Amino acid sequence: MEWVTKLNEAISYIEENIKGKIDYATAARIACCSLTRFQRTFSLVSDTTIGDYVRYRKMALAADELKSSSIKVIDLALKYGYDSPDSFTRAFQKFHGMSPTTVRKLGVSKAYPAISFQININGGNVYMGKKPVVQIEEFVGKQVVSFFVDQIDPEKHAWNLMRTWVKSNIKDYSMRRYIGCAPKGHHPQGEQHKSNEGPVKHEYYAQMILFDNEDISDLCKDVDICAAPQGLFLIGDIIFNEFHDDGTIDIGTSMQKSSQIMFDCMNEIGGYELDFNHRCFYEEHIFPKEWFYGADEMAEMKLWLPIKKM
Fold first, then answer.
1. Phi/psi of residue 31, each to 5°?
2. Could you give the 3-state DSSP secondary structure of residue 174?
3. Which of 23, 122, 150, 228 could be stapled to 144 by a disulfide with Cβ–Cβ 3.0 to 4.6 Å?
4. Is the predicted pLDDT of residue 306 greater than 80, yes or no?
């Protein structure tokens, strides 16, 4: 996949300049994306920030030099970009759990090898390292509690209805899975999403998936219970790395970019194709605990693309 190749080329640039000044904007250009997108993509697939990665690599390499040479700590600090030996020693001890002097004396230190992103396919999952980039799930016979809204900016209203209901009726609401969809699309007239566009009137469902054989009919007199989405779905994280001119997150464009990565992964798996015949995509919302108490904390989101076997 080209995006994986470009990401590895950016890492090669960082490694080549690890002892000097690293320009993250240059690394992003090598990866063929914006700086924000590069930072977020790196964090998603590596479970660490690019800043932490660089610091950890510096500390690991500095320890190797301490053990294999007679270089002074003050020279080592300057070599790896620290203004003083004290700041270097603090960072060194935080990472290794020992001072530079102790590492040199004992000849042991914490390793942190250079990262390399590789795609591995295991069944219906695509992994980058130990982290799944996309996975295939099948849903059969499940039900959902559903709230329907048809207005301008319906997502916010629908999820507020869901939040109020689960807080009043469900004890383990923070452990549930929540999905949403616009059955006729977020642009019902078929228009393409455009950056900086205003709110659009459309239908939207906010839904909570019920556990197998769960009976909460006594709690659902004022809400709808209906069939959950059925069949196979390709599921992957939405990386929020596209923005409007005013600095707010452009969810639509972020979803488009993430869906392309998922599509590429599906092709790598092989044997599947998209299936939008009478089916639609869903957005799984992973809400922080603060959201349930009224905070406008943005949820992490996963995209569900309907697929079928070829």
1. -80, 0
2. helix
3. 228
4. yes
Residue type at position 2: E
In angstroms, rounded to a whole number, what is the distance separating the alpha carbons of residues 214 and 132? 29
Closest CA to 135 of 265, 26, 245, 44: 265
- Say how far apart CA 255 and CA 238 lie, in whole Å: 6
Q: Which of 204, 203, 219 is nearest to 145 (CA)?
A: 219
How many other β-carbons are positioned within 10 Å of the β-carbon of residue 195?
A: 11
In angstroms, the CA 148 to CA 183 distance is: 10
| Residue whose structure tokens are 């695509």 | 126
Dihedral of CA 7/9/13/18: which sign?
A: positive
Question: What are the Cα distances from residue 166, in Å, to 81, 221, 261?
Answer: 51, 13, 33
Find, among 170, 154, 156, the residue nearest to 208 by Cα.
170
- Which amino acid is located at 66 in the chain? L
pLDDT of res. 233:
94
The 10 Å CB-count burial string (b at 16+, else e) for 227-253 is: ebbeebbbbbbbbbbbbeeeeeebbbb
Higher-pLDDT residue of 257 and 121 is 257
Task: Report d(CA 118, CA 4) in Å as an integer.
Answer: 7
In the DSSP assignment, the letter for residue 246 is: T
Res 212 pLDDT > 80? yes
* Euclidean distance between CA atoms 273 and 308, whole angstroms: 6
Residues in the chain: 310
Single-letter amino acid, residue 164? T
Written as six digits, the tokens of 150 are 């048809």
